[in-house]
Amino acid sequence: MKASIVLKAWMALSGLFLVIFLLVHMAGNLQLFLPEAIARPSFNAYSHALTSSIVIRVAGWLTYATIVVHAVIAAILARRHRNVRTAYALERPGTSSPWYARSMGWLGLVILSFIVLHMQSFWYRYHWGEVGVDLQGHRDLYSVVVTAFSEPWIVLVYVVSMLALGFHLQHGVAASLRSLGVFSARITRSAPPVAGWIAWIIAGVFAAMPVYVYFAFGGDGR
Q1: Which of 173, 129, 29, 11 is nearest to 80 (CA)?
Q2: Is residue 202 within 8 Å of residue 26, measured between CB atoms?
Q3: Which of 8, 195, 205, 222 has its CA 20 to 30 A from that of 82?
Q4: Could you report the per-residue pLDDT of 100-113, keeping only the tens digit for each?
Q5: Cβ contacts of residue 170 below 8 Å, gap of 6+?
Q6: Which candidate, 218, 221, 212, places its Cα nearest to that of 34?
Q7: How many CA atoms lie within 13 A of 174 on its CB side?
């Protein structure tokens, strides 16, 4: 029992850290909504800063490690609780909790698969692929993004993945605040609606990015 409580606390802390990362990442990527003449140099300079600063690189490594820790703990907890169900939940499986709360593992798998695709499409290509440079001499990640989001299937994958992220965060943020047990009863009671706002702002903005780029460039990647 004590081990499960400790694992849940680490699960909560790692999850909340990743939410902070998502908010920062979202703020940086908002540049994609700017006109191309502004967005290209700004976004490329931003990408260059992320890879040239040792502080940011260390933060990135910490984020990767946190994703792994979060996934491993989730798998351990899921295995421990797979057969632990209340009689009420077994008799009436649809009434004890919303479907997304009971599907966190599947939603997590969708998100993890998306992360692999995202890293391969942008992070790996930026570091080791053939990428041109812009007028400022920075690697032109903006063109890579525009080209990727000219593909309808990639846009669809991103939108579906962000729906999974939204539901995952909606339950996960609220559950994390409850699991830590360090907040007042009033804050704990307000966790579900606050989690909903955080979840769907993050998921909505990230889903809107590929859709906006696709239609802004007519789906031709130019």
Answers
A1: 11
A2: yes
A3: 195
A4: 998 999 999 999 99
A5: 100, 195, 196, 199, 200
A6: 212
A7: 19
Instruction: Specify the pTM.
Output: 0.89
Three-state DSSP string of the chain: CHHHHHHHHHHHHHHHHHHHHHHHHHHHHHHHHCCHHHHHHHHHHHHHHHHHCHHHHHHHHHHHHHHHHHHHHHHHHHHHHCCCCCHHHHHCCCCCCCHHHHCHHHHHHHHHHHHHHHHHHHHHHHHHCCCCECCCCCECHHHHHHHHCCCHHHHHHHHHHHHHHHHHHHHHHHHHHHHHCCCCHHHHHCHHHHHHHHHHHHHHHHHHHHHHHHHHCCCCCC
Which amino acid belongs to residue 119?
M
CA 21 to chain centre: 8
Enter the tokens of residue 123. Answer: 């992070």
pLDDT tops 60 at residue 49: yes
- Parse the chain into domains and list their residue ranges: 2-84+98-216
CA dihedral sign of residues 147, 150, 153, 154: positive
Sequence letter at residue 163: L
Question: In percent, how much of the chain has pLDDT > 90?
Answer: 70
Reference 134, options 38, 217, 54; nearest CA is 38
Q: How far apart are CA 29 and CA 209, in angstroms?
A: 8
